Amino acid sequence: MISIRSIDFHYQYGEFSLSIPEFHVARGEKVAVIGPSGSGKTTLLNLIAGILTPASGTVSIDDTEVSAFNDAQRRDFRITNIGFVFQDFELLDYLNVLDNILHPYRITRALTLDKAVRARAVSLADAMGIGDKLKRFADDLSQGEKQRAAICRALLPNPQLILADEATGNLDPENKTLILDLLFKIIEEHDATLLAVTHDHELLKRFDRVVDFQDFRRQDAA
Ligand code: ADP
Ligand code: MG
């Protein structure tokens, strides 16, 4: 599902750089990424999603070499194929919850917004426990509610790949279990692949594999 080969990346400004010789995630695999703050976990997800592009090397999703696409192609590919739950949610404050969840459908022609999609958005929000907040502006939600809205938005197009950046970080224990159960259920139903950054060691046993970013980078240095 994900294949990274010999990538080098550095930001335009600052010292941080990332080199990954090989990284693969198989279809249907559920992989957790752990590692200290600032080690590059979010950078890795952004490289996989094509939000960032490596200076050299390739990032492929299935047979598609995303790193070879131009900006517009990468964006379309991401919106239709990848569900990204951002660490900072990236909800649009001027839209209500429902419109935030539907937003991917409004910004690419590759997705068609119809009645069935709307109905699915509502039932997803219900299942996530934010069904009564659909008309509320994103700005007026608690952190945990924002997080759940962001998860709904990522899941609505039934993406084959879900990238989740500390997606349960703002949830209380009860909601965390509920939302994680739902997330895993949806992923399993669609045979989707999950790559999730988490700081929550309790959750790791639910994944097929854990990648420790520190080892990962040490390996690269070796
Ligand atoms: P993590 O998600 O593991 O906490 P990040 O991938 O967000 O780490 O960041 C890795 C490093 O890259 C950090 O040192 C961070 O300060 C730096 N960094 C993140 N974004 C940028 C940017 N846009 N420009 C320059 N440096 C950045
Ligand atoms: Mg991060």
**Side-by-side strand order of the widest sheet:** 6-7-8-3-9
- Beta-strand content: 15-25%
Low-confidence stretches: none
Listed once per kind, the bound small molecules are:
adenosine-5'-diphosphate, magnesium ion
User: Biggest β-sheet: count, sense, barrel?
Assistant: 5 strands, parallel
Mean pLDDT: 93
Distance between the amino and carboxyl termini? 26 Å
Strand/helix succession: EEEHEEHEHHHEHEEH
Q: Radius of gyration, Cα only, in angstroms?
A: 17 Å
User: What would you call the shape?
Assistant: globular
What is the total tally of β strands?
9
Instruction: Report the structural category.
Output: alpha/beta
Overall helicity: 25-40%
Number of helical regions: 7
Annotation keywords:
single chain, 222 residues, alpha/beta, five-stranded parallel beta sheet, four-stranded antiparallel beta sheet, 7 helices, 9 strands, binds adenosine-5'-diphosphate, binds magnesium ion
Structure in a nutshell:
With 222 residues, this protein is of the alpha/beta class.
